[in-house]
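job 3f2a | input accepted
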Amino acid sequence: MRTTKMIWIMLLAAVMLPATVLAENYTVSLGEVAKCLKTAKPGDCIQIADGTYSDVTLKWKAQGTAEKPVIIEALHAGKVIINGKSSLQIGGEYLTVKGLYFRDGEPARKTVVDFALNGVVANHCRLTDCVIDNFNDPQRDVLVSYITLSGRHNRVDHCSLLRKENIGVTLLVNLNGDDCLQNYHQVDHNYFGRRAVYGSNGAETMRIGTSNQSYFSSNTIIEDNLFEQCSGEVEVISVKSCDNIVRRNILLECEGVVALRHGKRNLVEHNWFVGNGKRNTGGVRVVDADHRVVNNVFYGLAGERFFSALGVMDGVPNSLPNRYVRVSNLTVSGNTFVNCKALEMGTGMDPERTEAPVGVTFADNKIVDTAQKEPLLMTDKSTQMTCSGNLVQLAKPYNVEGFTSKTIKLPKLPTYKEMREGKGATWMLTTKDDGSSKCKADTINFEGREYRLTETILIEKPTVICGVKGRTVLRYVGDQPASMITIANGGSLKVNGIIFDGRLEAGKRLAFSGISTAEKMNRTYRLKVDDCEFRNFVESTFAAIKGAKATFADSVVISNCRFYDISGNGIDYSAERDDKGRYDVDDFIVENCTFQRFLGIPVNVYRGGSDESTAGPYVSIKGCVFDDSCNRQRGSVMRLIGPQLMTISDCSFKNSGLGGASIRLDEAIWEKICIRDCVFENSGRVMTSTDKVEQYNNVVR
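job 3f2a | predicted structure (701 res):
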């Protein structure tokens, strides 16, 4: 009887307990995910069938729990490929997205993956083991991000972010709204792949906040990531808020720095900055108060000023939010600097930035550089700094208070394999990206005398065009205006032995240039022209060689060429006229060329404005002859506005620039400009803006 009673009690208790809800697994197509999410429960896993999905606008919202998140994942990581015009918005709480491959597409919105849905932010959500590769707007100057983090407690980890070409931040932490502050986001174990020099501000790899949000606390943690050749602009990681942590990351050959640009109380610790001596590789730049830069390794960094291994900025009195607040209460300790070109106190001192740093503690650091006589460059000697316990190994003994000369054991540089280990998507190959094109160049050989082009020669991959020097002529005889050769997205070009003749054919249209770029490009290109002639481009708006607005050349090299009988410009890289620091070419080299009978400007390079987010253009003009060129009122033979590093040498000007200048500059005081060994015979002057231009061995007749 007692046994029967106990059985009834147990059965009654079982009936009274709430039913246990079991998690479910689904396997669906990409388009069916949103439908599944409408009934998804905490712990459910939705697997996406393998396939290529194009032109999808994904909106995923779920409510999971900390113990049981809702998971959306590729059935096989990397096999769910999303392309076309596509984007993903994430909403809700405790939602994990895993294993997706965004490849060779275009964002349907201003960001590829957005941690907000219809204006409502996501919290406690995660993007992991995903890849975004070459997801760009076709137009280079359209603002696009790969990932925007909004809300709180979200995580991006073990993702690979590759081939970002448009202007815009690769990964943006959004602080616009109370629901995004003190967010405690975590960005860890990701691989940020090569990002080429953009030639403008606004090409950061990461940014946390804006100048107007600089005194809000973000509490974002950036740790254990690899940034490889992320060189879009000077600020690889741009911190514009308070209370963030940047630790255990590796910046490998990045032409830029971790910039504590705005805000207070940020921590940069245990990072590796490895430059391998490449130009503009930098470390940490500091603005404002209460920051700590501790226990980092700075190795082989060649940057100066804003690109220095350590740049402690001068401030602006009564600074506006978007300028430079004085540095105060800064701790720099326990760091190791090995063969770094510049450690600066008072970086950027100029007529506007006049407040030297105060309250700087520089302690227990190690500095090794046998090419330097002093450990620090005191750009502003009024910097208030306390030094103690620092060890130095320099060109000669240096025993100043706070510094002791000693042989220092160098830290062991990690191998590339060690740097990549555990960074990025687990399923993606981890070969080193050196930035070189992987496709074989096409070769076009012109062996006859004259070739009549009815349309432009479109260059969409690396191409070599060869002719017979002094014999092979290209002429344009099309029905619509065009360039003879157009470099388009994906293209680079080498040309040798061609005569570009712009002479009009009766009943046909003129070629507006010999070589130009397409109007819509988002990738950088290279151009090399040797042993060619350009003649008879007879309209003032035409040019022999021209870069279009919103295009960018990694390098342009013009050598041993002759330009003559031209009413427009010769080599024209001046399309960016917004005066925002943008420019069209990074390395610009003209050597042993002749320019005769020009109405326009033979050489024209333009970088307007005073923005300091980039280090170019780099200009070298050597061994060139200018005869009867640009004698118009207020004209100039060379118009070189804003190159930051430039040498003009061994050039000859004859009967040129008589209405204005042989060389017209508009340089800033920090730019390094040298004009040497040039001859000016019955020609215009050199027009400068400062007294900083170095001029020597020039002859005026």
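job 3f2a | The two ends are 128 Å apart (CA to CA).
job 3f2a | closed
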